[in-house]
């Protein structure tokens, strides 16, 4: 299969599986798992935080992050397109009694600072208490600049708000910006990152923050059913991913750009390659039934998510040669 549906479909490599199979383990609920502890220390150091917590998913990392920052009757400001607003089952509201205050994202993925400022509630019994601004980087494949994040942080300081980053793909942002992951994370009180997407680990995410923050988050992780036992086998795969699969993300970005460029040359595909920043390509179609095309390509072992626009995601399971095979298959199918 050549699978463009998501970077979540990545498979652990033989080398990663070997490291996982040999990982020393213990009961992580007791804090006894050496591989989980090693991952958490390694990641905290790498991303520039005091502490880190290994979680079962990015959804759980965001949820317990939001529940640690915000109490019942508090709110977080986020993008209308934010994953932790749309795609996480409303967890913060459902489980945390925390209200989201979404703001329409601008075309570049940012939140207009004037709109953010207007959404911050005054201290008045009519209103929930605004506690947090949550950004996402990358968002739909788009990168928020360091300059922009610094401006949001300045506003947060001024209004005494905390800052959270949904950094499921923060490494893609760092690689694209040509800066360290620590530089991307420096503006935030907490960050979540996904290990199970482009980095290629089979399972897991991390939540990072101050020591006290992570202590509280650890309670919420237990409450939400995320206290895992011999999780070290998963943590070892995750650490392998952080050590080996970060710098290669540029290949995925180059491949996405190449895919967009070649698709733009096919009649009926509306895509601007110059707008592809990381590993996602969004394609509008004109007079092409993308659902029919998806069916035909699936018969040839090629998967993508049809829609308007259609999304194509590159990752470590897709080579330049796979893209050429796909382009030929598309032309044949059309
Ligand atoms: C995938 C994703 C998540 C959630 O990760 P899961 O591990 O699938 O729960 C959170 N935020 C963003 C931006 C994501 O892309």
UniProtKB/TrEMBL annotation:
A Pfam match: Beta_elim_lyase
GO cellular component: cytosol
Keywords: Lyase, Pyridoxal phosphate
GO biological processes: glycine biosynthetic process; L-threonine catabolic process
Family from the record: Belongs to the threonine aldolase family.
UniProt-recorded Gene Ontology molecular function terms: L-allo-threonine aldolase activity
Residue numbers carrying N6-(pyridoxal phosphate)lysine: 197
NCBIfam families xrefs: GntG_guanitoxin (NF041359), PRK10534.1 (NF007825)
EC numbers for this chain: 4.1.2.48
Protein origin, superkingdom: Bacteria
Protein name per Swiss-Prot or TrEMBL: Low-specificity L-threonine aldolase
Organism: Motilimonas pumila
Cofactor: pyridoxal 5'-phosphate
CDD domains per record: TA_like
InterPro entries in UniProt: ArAA_b-elim_lyase/Thr_aldolase (IPR001597), Low_specificity_L-TA-like (IPR023603), PyrdxlP-dep_Trfase (IPR015424), PyrdxlP-dep_Trfase_major (IPR015421), PyrdxlP-dep_Trfase_small (IPR015422)
Listed SUPFAM superfamilies: PLP-dependent transferases (SSF53383)
């Amino acid at each position: 299969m050549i699978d463009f549906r998501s970077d979540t479909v990545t498979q652990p490599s033989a080398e990663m599986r070997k490291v996982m199979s040999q990982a020393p383990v213990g009961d992580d609920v007791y804090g006894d798992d050496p591989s989980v502890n090693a991952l958490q220390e390694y990641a905290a150091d790498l991303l520039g935080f005091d502490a880190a917590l290994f979680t079962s998913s990015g959804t759980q990392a965001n949820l317990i992050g939001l529940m640690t920052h915000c109490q019942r009757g508090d709110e977080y400001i986020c993008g209308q397109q934010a994953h932790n607003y749309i795609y996480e089952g409303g967890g913060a509201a459902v489980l945390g009694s925390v209200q989201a205050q979404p703001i329409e994202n601008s075309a570049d993925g940012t939140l207009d600072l004037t709109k953010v400022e207007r959404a911050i509630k005054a201290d008045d019994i009519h209103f929930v208490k605004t506690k947090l601004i949550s950004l996402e980087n990358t968002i739909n494949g788009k990168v928020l600049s360091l300059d922009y994040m610094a401006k949001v942080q300045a506003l947060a300081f001024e209004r005494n708000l905390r800052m959270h980053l949904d950094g499921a793909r923060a490494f893609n942002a760092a690689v694209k910006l040509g800066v360290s992951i620590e530089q991307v994370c420096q503006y935030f009180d907490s960050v979540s990152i996904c290990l199970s997407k482009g980095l290629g680990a089979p399972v897991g995410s991390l939540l990072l923050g101050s020591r006290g923050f992570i202590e509280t988050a650890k309670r919420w992780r237990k409450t939400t059913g995320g206290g895992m036992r011999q999780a070290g086998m998963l943590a070892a795969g995750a650490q392998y991913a952080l050590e080996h699969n970060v710098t290669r993300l540029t290949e995925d970005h180059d491949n996405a750009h190449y895919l967009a460029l070649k698709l733009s040359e096919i009649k009926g595909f509306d895509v601007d390659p110059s707008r592809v920043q990381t590993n996602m390509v969004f394609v509008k179609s004109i007079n092409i039934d993308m659902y029919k095309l998806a069916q035909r390509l699936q018969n040839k072992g090629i998967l993508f998510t049809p829609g308007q626009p259609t999304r194509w995601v590159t990752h470590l399971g897709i080579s330049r040669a796979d893209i050429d095979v796909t382009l030929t298959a598309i032309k044949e199918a059309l």
